[in-house]
Amino acid sequence: MATDHNHTVNHDEHELPQILVLEAPPIMRYYGDHFLKNFRLLKAWESPLPLDQFLTIHAHSVQALLSPGRYPLTGNILRLLPSLQLVVTTSAGLNHIDLPECRRLGIAVANAGDVYSEDVADLAVGLMIDVLRKVSAADRYVRKGLWPSEGDFPLGSKLGSKRVGIVGFGSIGQEVAKRVEAFGCRISYSSRNKKSLVSYPYYSNVSQLAADSDVLIVCCGLTDQTRHMINKDVMLALGKEGVIINIGRGPIINEKELVHCLLQQELGGAGLDVFENEPNIPTELLTLDNVVLSPHRAVHTPETLAAMCDHVKANFEAFFSNKPLLSLITND
Amino acid sequence: MDSSIGVLMTYPMSDYLEQQLQKRFNLFKLWTHSSHSDFLKNNSNSIQALVGNTKIGADAELIDSLPKLEIVSSYSVGLDKIDLSKCQEKGIRVTNTPDVLTDDVADAAIGLVLAVTRRVCECDRFVRSGLWKKRDFGLGTKFSGKSVGIVGLGRIGSAIAKRAQAFDCLISYHSRSERPETNYKYYSSIIDLAANCHILIIACALTEKTHHIVNREVIDALGPKGILINIGRGPHIDEPELVSALLEGRLGGAGLDVFENEPEVPEHLLALENVVLLPHVGSDTVETSESMADLVINNLEAHFLKKPLLTPVI
After folding, report:
1. Strand ranges inside chain B, DSSP E
2. ipTM surpasses cut 0.90
3. Options 3.40.190.10, 2.60.120.620, 3.90.380.10, 3.40.50.720; which CATH number does A18-114+302-320 get?
4. Is the dihedral of CA A302, A304, A310, A312 positive or negative?
5. In whole angstroms, what is the distance from residue B171 CA to residue B146 CA?
6. Cα A245-A250-A254 angle, rounded to 5 deg
């Protein structure tokens, strides 16, 4: 996205700048739209018109768009917005946006930046501890009244000295590494490119990372290259005691093969916040005690959502006052 | 090792430990005898060593019934189930299992914090019940950057602090004495500690002084948004007060690995969404169980070979 911040913003000085919103993002559902009170919101979902008609009639001069993380921002939609210069998405992930088309049309894209990274990393660690130490399974055991009758609960697995392979070493991957190191784990990572300032061992190949790891934590974005990147070969390389944690996107893992490996006990366990077809999850996973399931909640804390409101507002304010965006996506 | 040395194991705490003891000593298993008093009457003179744990240790009665007892080697770091003054009086050595379980217990503490703040177990229940197809789950609470108060800054408390720091938490503590070599903020009063932190973690030893150290006052100081984590001993907390605080919303949530009367857990807790309940598994990993067992064995061998004990308490 080569578009830099030297855009020209034209708006009537007596009118608030306009932002198109196709569907209410989670921050709006929880907190309303007060945080964007200095803007005029064009709310597409409130209109009875089909989207393409609505945009053609009302969005001709719209320069900025607020995109929720799940709503596909397709080329077809983008081409109906001739004045569009900026997309601000509330997600860290960009897989829902037609990025090549944005590039072609000179539309800048700004995402969640680092706002989510701590919360997501916290959940990754929470899921990892849960799977290795069987926290949810043990809680179920107690709640069912099995402690007095069945006696001692099965042993878990120690975190210390476990080899943790982090897939994707951006902001989230780095926050995960910082936390996991404090538990005495040994860290390696894979990424599109080796990071020169990072001292952990680098693997260009995820299967090789898996072969040298006990736990794999998926922290990368979903792209054509990463779709189904975690497949049966990677899982077999990780091994029978291996654990996979996914806080990236469901389709990074071949879900069918994951279920198969878990059922065949080719894999030790999994902690999953994301799935290929949310909110549907493979029913076989419900029969397993060694998986921990989370309904795509990695950023859903009031602290982080409030921070996201501020972040979104700041990006729009920067744009409309011709200042640099906080979290502009560039080709890297 | 002289296999005529009699070792009494109080509880089936570890198959591996049992096997190792069987190989080296004349092993007696207390739990396999329906009448403890008959068993002791017939065998007490043959027993020189006792291996106890957090469930059955070595109380005054048991110690008095073993006239040839030389050493108590506990499969635990906690000593609350051992009558230490009686052992001291009779010249009986006592060992425990420090250090080898420190990491596991600290990991469990942080696991409980994350499970409660981020509602991990609740989320898992929510997905498993099919509710995700009907509605969104709701919000948790961010852990990173929160203030964490630790009661007891020994090995385990320090290990918990180290982990919490990786989450950018602010660490404060209450302890018998101040530890100026740490950068953490010290509170001489546990109530002040509770009033000034978001998450309170109990990591001290259970003694007469720390019995019910977390009472109604402390819980109220922690408050309706506060989270209480216990990986120490059940009796650290006044359990009925904890239950009523949770039911009345005076406490935000709790993560508990220990209870006053294990394996009994107060029925009210079983119905609450804002608690996470573990069956005393703080050090229960395959790796650590083996390390603990090895330490028990090595201490016993050292004693009977008249070598220095590895981890003596007395």
Report:
1. 6-9, 26-29, 49-51, 71-73, 93-95, 147-151, 170-174, 185-186, 199-202, 227-230, 253-256, 275-277
2. yes
3. 3.40.50.720
4. negative
5. 9
6. 85
CA-based nearest residue in chain B for residue A149? B263
Residue B310 lies in a domain: no
Give A84-116 pLDDT, tens digit per residue: 999 999 999 999 999 999 999 999 999 999 999
Contact B75, B97 (CB under 8 A): yes
- CATH T-level fold of A117-293: Rossmann fold (3.40.50)
Place of tokens 């190191």: A181
Q: What's the CATH code of the domain at B73?
A: 3.40.50.720
- In 10 A of CB B92, how many CB atoms? 21
Of B114, B124, B136, the CB nearest to A122: B114
Output phi, psi for B254, to 5 deg.
-150, 145
For residues B237 and B230, the answer to whether their CB atoms sit within 8 Å is yes
Q: Using CB atoms, which residue from B108, B119, B277 is nearest to A143?
A: B277
Q: Give the C-alpha distances (Å, rounded to integers) separating B125 from A155, A302, B115.
A: 22, 21, 12
> Which pLDDT belongs to residue A8?
53
pTM: 0.93
Tally the C-alpha atoms within 13 A of residue B215's C-alpha that lie toward its C-beta.
9
| Closest-CA residue of chain A to B123 | A294
CA A295 – CA B136 distance, rounded (Å): 8
Q: Is the pLDDT of residue A2 over 50?
A: no
The per-residue pLDDT for A69 is 86
How many CB atoms within 10 Å of residue B261? 10
B111/A30 touch (CB, cutoff 8 Å), yes or no: no
State whether B299 and B161 are in the same domain. Answer: no
Does the pLDDT value for residue A315 go beyond 50? yes
- The whole-number pLDDT of residue B123 equals 98
What is the separation of C-alpha B114 from the centre of its chain, rounded to a whole number of angstroms? 19
pLDDT at A331 over 70: no
A1 pLDDT tier (thresholds 50, 70, 90): very low
Q: Residue B108's beta-bridge partner residues?
A: none
Q: What are phi and psi of A187, to 5 degrees?
A: -105, 135
Mutation for A interface: B17, B113, B121, B133, most A CBs within 10 A: B121
Tell me which residue of B58, B55, B32, B28 sits closest to B43, measured CA to CA.
Answer: B28
Mean pLDDT of B29-43: 95
C-beta neighbour count of A15 within 10 angstroms = 8
Element (H, E) at A57: helix A51-58
